[in-house]
Amino acid sequence: MDVLTDNFSLYGKGFLGTVELTVYSSALALALGFVMASFRVAPVGSLRVLGTVWVTVLRNTPLTLLFFAVLLGLPRFGLVLPFQLFAVLALGCYTSAFICEVLRSGINTVPTGQGEAARSLGMSFGQTLGTVVLPQAFRSVIPPVGSTLIALAKNSAIAGAFSVTELLGTYRTLNELGYSIIWTFVWIAVGYLIITLTISALFNVMEKRWGVAR
C-alpha cells in the first residue's frame, strides 16, 4: 500500500490524464466513425472510396506508427499542438476506423426495404439514414462500440511514451524513486480496471435500456 499512499497525487494525475485521453479520443472516434460509416453506405461513389480508404489505412497501421506520424508529421505542416492533443488525434482517428466498421455492420442489419420505403416517401439519403436506419442500427451495435472504447482506453497507454501524462507513465517516476516495480504495476492495473469497468457498466446500462432483445 505504501506505493499508492506515498504517491497518491502522482497516481491521481496519471489516472485523470488517462480518463481525459479516453473521453476526448472517444468523442472524436465516435464522430469520425459516424461520418465514415455514412460515407461507406452513401450513394456517391467518391464518398464510398474515401470511407474505404480511411478504414483500410487506419485499421492496418500500427498505432505506435500512427503516433509517430501525427507527432512528427503534422508540425512539418505548421500544425503545432500540445502533446495531449496530438495523442487525442492519433487515438481518435485510429479508433474511428473500428467504430466505422461496427456502425456499418449495424446499418447492414436494418432491412433494405425500410430504406427503400423511406426513399419512396421522398426522404433524402441523409433523412433516411438519420431517422430510419441509424436509430435501429444503434440498438444493435451498443456492445461492440463499448468493447471498442474499452480497447481505446487501454491503447491510451502508448501516449505515455510521447510525453503525455497518463497512468502507465507513472511507473518511470516510481521506478526511479526505488519503489517495487511489481506493486507499481499492480496499482496501475487497478486504475485501468476502474476505467474499463466504468465503461463496461455504462454500456451495459445502455444495452438494457435501448439494446435489441435477444
Characterization of the model:
Helix content is 79%, strand content 0%. The chain has 9 helices and no strands. Helix 2 packs antiparallel against helix 7, helix 3 packs across helix 5 and helix 4 (63-73) crosses helix 5 (83-109). The radius of gyration is 20 Å and the shape is elongated. Residues 15-203 form the ABC transmembrane type-1 domain.
How would you briefly describe this protein structure?
The chain has nine helices and no strands. It has about 210 residues and is mainly α. Helix 7 (about 125-155) runs antiparallel to helix 9.
Q: Strand-and-helix sequence, N→C?
A: HHHHHHHHH
Q: Major β-sheet, in short?
A: none
> What is the CA-CA span between the terminal residues?
44 Å
Shape: elongated
List low-confidence stretches.
none
Percent helix range: over 70%
- Average of pLDDT: 87
Membrane topology: Multi-pass membrane protein
Pfam family, one: BPD_transp_1
Domain ABC transmembrane type-1: 15-203
Family: Belongs to the binding-protein-dependent transport system permease family. HisMQ subfamily.
